[in-house]
Design brief:
The structure holds two protein chains of two kinds. Chain A is mainly β. Chain A has helices at about 25-35, 55-60; strands spanning about 20-25, 75-85, 95-110, 110-120, 130-140. Chain B has five helices and six strands, in the order αββααααββββ. Classes of the chains: A mainly beta, B alpha+beta.
């Protein structure tokens, strides 16, 4: 089946959704600092080395819903149930990052479909910044 | 001095099991939900409509509220861990959390961490915590564990 024909609910074990590239500008990072109410100087260009990307930006940009392959049928929502996160290295503002996803497993629990998807963020030097295992389930409006 | 502050966290290597830490209360205002989940400020039509930013879109997906992204309050927990361990946490910190309920705009959330284990590791002390985020009424929206080394 072509990627475009799959809804996110159909992603199967071993499936690799389309990766995402994104740039972190100082403006985008500061938008996250506002949303997080966290103005630690290490996230700002204060002359002590490159500003660091706020971890919440990395988490948000590596949600499975960020993959260009993500799509859901009308009335179906993806629910973030559990998250295992491993931080590997600080990320510098001004870089381009790539998120790659890999579906590790799919299963049913109490009649609901679940999926565990590994997300890996690398920077433009191919350094691993973060690895996550995102546990998702799905709900349909009645 | 600032560089040293970035490197150092506030937790003492001698911190004991049962010791608890708390982040600053965070108001989940609609503006902050838009900033987090609405896409870049400069994008045309900002904020982008989705279940985290628009009530009609959320209701069409079967939700009763706009439901803040879980990663938004995961960020609050990350902030608390970085306060404890400094920027090193961005290189070796972990969290394993479950999302237990939707969070609506207007709630105030507080991240908490309680030491449950400490052991020698990697030239330092590896701490394990029970962690949570909850509103002022104590309704938990995130719970699990986190680790850090100091």
């Amino acid at each position: 089946m072509e990627q475009a024909e799959l809804t996110s609910r159909d992603w199967y074990e071993g499936f690799e959704p389309e990766p995402l590239e994104f740039d972190v500008t100082p403006e985008l990072n500061e938008q996250y600092l506002y949303s997080q109410q966290d103005y630690d100087p290490m996230y700002l260009d204060d002359g002590d080395g490159p500003a660091l990307v706020h971890p919440s930006l990395l988490l948000n940009m590596s949600n499975t819903t960020r993959s260009p392959s993500h799509n859901l049928a009308p009335g179906v929502s993806s629910i973030h149930a559990r998250d295992e996160v491993f931080f590997k290295a600080p990320a510098a503002v001004g870089q381009r990052f790539t998120v790659r996803w890999f579906v590790e497993s799919t299963f049913e629990k109490r009649g609901r479909p679940y999926r565990i998807t590994r997300a890996t963020i690398t920077d433009e030097n191919d350094k691993t910044i973060l690895v996550r295992k995102v546990h998702s389930t799905f709900a349909a409006s009645s | 001095v600032r560089q040293e502050e970035h490197e150092m966290g506030t937790i003492e290597p001698t911190a004991s099991i049962g010791e608890a830490f708390e982040g600053q209360p965070k108001l989940m205002s609609m503006e902050r939900l838009w900033a987090f989940s609405g896409g870049p400020f400069a994008a045309e039509g900002w904020p982008r409509s989705n279940i985290h930013t628009d009530l009609d879109t959320a209701k069409a997906s079967g939700l009763s509220t706009v439901a803040a992204s879980g990663t938004q309050f995961q960020g609050h927990l990350a902030q608390l861990m970085i306060e404890l361990f400094g920027r090193r946490w961005l290189s070796d910190g972990t969290m394993d959390v479950r999302f237990t309920r939707p969070v609506d705009a207007g709630e105030t959330l507080i991240a908490r961490a309680e030491v449950t284990n400490r052991e020698e590791a990697d030239g330092g002390v590896l701490f394990t915590f029970d962690v949570s985020c909850a509103n002022r009424e104590g309704d938990v929206c995130l719970a699990g564990t986190a680790t850090g080394i100091c």
